[in-house]
């Protein structure tokens, strides 16, 4: 991917929409472009996270470990999403936040946090857009943690499909087609459950025609409203 294309991508990103071309070129000059393969680790928080990442292509999961043996997925991120900017793991029983590639490959643009902080100090429009983005992300994460606390496993799995439909779905009235990047184990990690329990719930949803799996990479939800009345 050439420098001109990368600069155009940054110019079209909502966070940098108010930057002029010279500022975009400067941003490209201090950024780093990398390709990652499926299951490759992008960072682990047992090492200091010193970069801000923007996804150009692919899907990334942000996870942490609970009590040293259980993985919990906190976010699934797609093209245009930014990560590495918030340290989410503060509780003593949460260890080692990490970012890992879900798709066959991912293309990532990144900046050092020091360079990005300098940009925020110079450009109020970027700082305001960034603050709003972080606030929105914290709301989503707080909602997820509330779901983990107050909902049973089936409700959490149903909520996973509703969220996936909202952010990844191709809609036609109440019918949604979703390109599925996550295995049953990934869904179990996202819902803080076991793979066996998640597989049982999904198989029951398939039997009831609430969801339809076409191979491993496509899910159809004939009527999204049925996810809310189970």
Describe this structure in words.
- This protein has about 230 residues and is of the alpha+beta class.
- The chain has two domains: about 1-150, Jelly Rolls, CATH 2.60.120.10; about 150-225, Arc Repressor Mutant, subunit A, CATH 1.10.10.10.
- It is built from seven helices and twelve strands.
- It has helices spanning about 5-10, 20-30, 115-120, 125-150, 155-170, 185-190, 195-205; strands at about 30-35, 40-45, 50-55, 60-65, 70-75, 80-85, 95-100, 105-110, 170, 175-180, 210-215, 220.
- The chain has a four-stranded antiparallel β-sheet with strand order 1-8-3-6. Strands 2-7-4-5 form a four-stranded antiparallel β-sheet. The protein has a four-stranded antiparallel β-sheet with strand order 9-10-12-11.
- Helix 6 packs across helix 7.
- The radius of gyration is 19 Å and the shape is globular.
- The N and C termini lie far apart (about 45 Å).
- Residues about 85-95 have low confidence and may be disordered.
Explain the layout of strands and helices:
Elements (H helix, E strand, L loop, with lengths): L2 H10 L8 H9 L2 E6 L3 E4 L6 E7 L2 E7 L3 E8 L4 E2 L10 E8 L3 E8 H10 L1 H27 L2 H16 E4 L2 E5 L4 H7 L4 H13 L4 E3 L3 E4 L9
Antiparallel strand pairs: 1-8, 2-7, 3-6, 3-8, 4-5, 4-7, 9-10, 10-12, 11-12
Helix pairs in contact: 1-2, 3-4, 6-7
Features:
single chain, 230 residues, alpha+beta, Jelly Rolls, Arc Repressor Mutant, subunit A, four-stranded antiparallel beta sheet, 7 helices, 29% strand
Task: Indicate the overall shape.
Answer: globular
Integer average pLDDT: 85
DSSP summary: helix tally: 7
Any idea of the CATH class of the largest domain?
A: Mainly Beta
Structural class: alpha+beta
H/E series: HHEEEEEEEEHHHEEHHEE
What's the CATH architecture of the largest domain? Sandwich
Total tally of structural domains: 2
What is the spatial order of strands in the main beta sheet?
1-8-3-6
Fraction of residues in helix: 40-55%
CATH third-tier fold name of the largest domain: Jelly Rolls
List low-confidence stretches: 87-94
Main sheet makeup: 4 strands, antiparallel
Rg value: 19 Å
- CATH homologous superfamily heading of the largest domain: Jelly Rolls
Terminus-to-terminus distance: 46 Å
């Amino acid at each position: 991917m050439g420098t001109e294309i990368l600069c155009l991508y940054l110019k079209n990103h909502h966070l940098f929409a108010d930057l002029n071309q010279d500022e975009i070129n400067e941003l490209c000059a201090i950024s780093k472009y990398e390709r990652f393969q499926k299951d490759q680790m992008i960072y682990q928080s047992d090492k200091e996270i010193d970069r801000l990442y923007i996804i150009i292509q692919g899907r990334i999961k942000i996870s942490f470990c609970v009590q040293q043996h259980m993985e919990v997925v906190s976010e699934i991120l797609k093209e245009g999403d930014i990560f590495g900017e918030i340290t989410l793991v503060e509780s003593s029983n949460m260890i080692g936040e990490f970012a890992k590639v879900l798709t066959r490959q991912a293309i990532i643009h990144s900046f050092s946090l020091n360079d990005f902080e300098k940009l925020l100090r110079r450009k109020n429009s970027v700082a305001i857009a960034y603050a709003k983005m972080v606030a929105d992300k914290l709301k989503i994460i707080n909602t997820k943690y509330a779901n983990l606390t107050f909902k049973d496993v089936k409700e959490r799995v149903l909520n996973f499909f509703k969220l996936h439909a909202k952010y990844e779905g191709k809609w036609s009235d109440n019918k949604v087609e979703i390109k599925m990047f996550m295995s049953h184990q990934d869904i179990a990690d996202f819902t803080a459950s076991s793979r066996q329990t998640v597989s049982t719930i999904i198989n029951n949803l398939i039997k009831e025609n609430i969801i339809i799996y076409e191979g491993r990479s496509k899910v159809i939800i004939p009527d999204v409203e049925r996810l809310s009345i189970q």
